[in-house]
Write a structure and sequence with these properties.
- The complex is a heterodimer of chains A (about 110) and B (about 250).
- Chain A is α/β, with parallel strands linked by helices and about 110 residues long.
- Chain A has one domain: HprK N-terminal domain-like (Udp-n-acetylmuramoylalanyl-d-glutamate--2,6- Diaminopimelate Ligase, Chain: A, domain 1, 3-Layer(aba) Sandwich).
- Chain A has helices at about 5-10, 35-40, 55-60, 80-85, 100-110; strands at about 15, 25-30, 45-50, 65-70, 90-95.
- A 5-stranded mixed beta sheet of chain A has the order 1-5-4-3-2, sandwiched between helices.
- In chain A, helix 3 (about 55-60) packs parallel to helix 4 (about 80-85).
- Chain A is globular, with a radius of gyration of 12 Å.
- The termini of chain A are close together.
- Chain B has a single domain (about 1-245), classed as TIM Barrel (Alpha-Beta Barrel).
- Chain B is built from 8 helices and 11 strands.
- Chain B has helices at about 25-35, 50-60, 85-100, 105-110, 135-145, 165, 185-195, 230-235, and strands at about 1-10, 40-45, 65-70, 75-80, 115, 120-125, 150-155, 180, 200-205, 220-225, 240-245.
- The radius of gyration of chain B is 17 Å and the shape is globular.
- The chains are: A alpha/beta (about 110), B alpha/beta (about 250).
- Chains A and B meet through helix 2 and helix 3 of A and helix 6 of B.
Chain lengths: ~110, ~250
């Protein structure tokens, strides 16, 4: 499944990194500790978090993640947006909580 | 140059997790008794106990640096220290503006009180001081430096609430005066693990929450006199000044 499909099906907002919307998704990872994501996220995963700091994008790039979803209507920091556009990794947003969006994404990816 | 035993990370009764025994009087007496020369008062997201400790320190011949341990929106703990009470009070206004409002449940989190020099309770704070501020680590750092303060990310080797646990690696635009390692950490191992550049100064402080933690963990500051300006110069390693973490 491509990032653009989850944007449509989960009604996500696209903040940045539009050129990466055709990235292929391999799975999902949920964490707010960036050190944990560095160690445990896998290539192609969608990362669900409430952290909006620019380091999020450096780690998304390092791990070659498909996209980042910010929960609870949180908006990315301006540097995060810039890095997202530079790296072509989309930063997406939802009004849902981590629990709710994770459940929906899990269901969608495992249909 | 003279050597000063320095511990700039100490909590008082004001911190919800600080022991009620950590009154200004007790802290100053124990610091003197156990050979500390300079202490920093760094409660969670509040500077309101600093003045009383500073006044008692003046009487006892102990240098007290006022500040706090700020929690950024990423939940990174950072020591912030200030040269005078004008700067400190301005930073307190900044904290009041940015602290997330969560009512403190004293039975769960602990009491948050300011006491006077005779240990009488002057005021109790009802918003939980362990909550985070709504601003980034860079925004806190910029405010501290605008007020000519010192900014030191706390216990960077810990698996939670540290710069590295929360943000994975050193944020490229952050300007630190030093990094604090926790009491059991070894300087060389921490430098290797987190790829800390040699030009960044490391210090070790106690993060004391209980009387028994006071005095065991400190960094030696080699400098001219026990003042804020000299602390800043020692952290920079200026003109023969330096800091040494005891082995």
């Amino acid at each position: 499944m491509k990032v653009s499909e989850i944007v449509e099906k989960l009604d996500l907002k696209v903040y940045s990194g539009r050129k990466g919307l055709d990235r292929e998704i391999s799975g999902g990872y949920v964490s707010d500790l960036l050190s944990d994501v560095m160690g445990n996220a896998q290539e192609g995963e969608v990362w669900i978090t409430l952290q909006v700091h620019q380091n999020v994008m450096a780690i998304a790039s390092l791990k070659d993640l498909a996209a980042v979803i910010l929960v609870n209507n949180l908006e990315p920091h301006e540097n995060t947006v810039r890095h997202s556009d530079d790296e072509n990794i989309p930063v997406l947003g939802t009004s849902l909580s981590t629990f709710e969006i994770s459940g929906k994404l899990y269901q969608l990816l495992n249909q | 140059m003279k050597s000063f035993r320095t511990d700039l990370h100490i909590h008082t009764v004001l911190s919800p997790c600080g022991d009620l025994e950590m009154s200004p009087l007790r802290i100053v007496l124990l610091a003197k008794e156990r050979g500390l020369d300079i202490i920093g008062i760094t409660d969670h997201n509040s500077t309101r106990q600093c003045k009383v400790v500073w006044e008692l320190g003046q009487k006892a011949g102990l240098t007290v640096i006022p500040g706090c341990e700020a929690t950024t929106r990423e939940e990174v703990h950072c020591l912030t220290l200030f040269p005078d009470f004008d700067a400190l009070n301005e930073f307190q206004d900044f904290l009041d503006m940015h602290l997330t409002i969560i009512p403190n449940e004293a039975s769960l989190f602990g009491y948050q009180v300011v006491v006077d020099e005779d240990e009488n309770i002057l005021e109790e704070f009802h918003n939980y001081l362990g909550a985070s501020l709504d601003i980034s680590v860079e925004e806190v750092e910029q405010k501290v430096h605008e007020l000519s303060g010192i900014f030191i990310p706390a216990h960077i080797d810990r698996p939670r609430n540290s710069l590295f646990s929360q943000l994975g690696f050193f944020p490229p635009e952050l300007k630190v005066d030093a990094l604090q390692i926790s009491k059991l950490a070894e300087e060389i191992a921490v430098r290797q693990k987190y790829w800390i550049k040699p030009d960044i100064t490391l210090v070790k402080f106690s993060d004391a929450h209980y009387p028994e933690d006071l005095g065991k963990t400190y960094t030696i500051f080699e400098m001219e006199e026990p003042s804020f300006a000299e602390i800043r110069r020692a952290l920079k390693g200026e003109a023969g000044r330096k800091v040494i973490i005891p082995q």
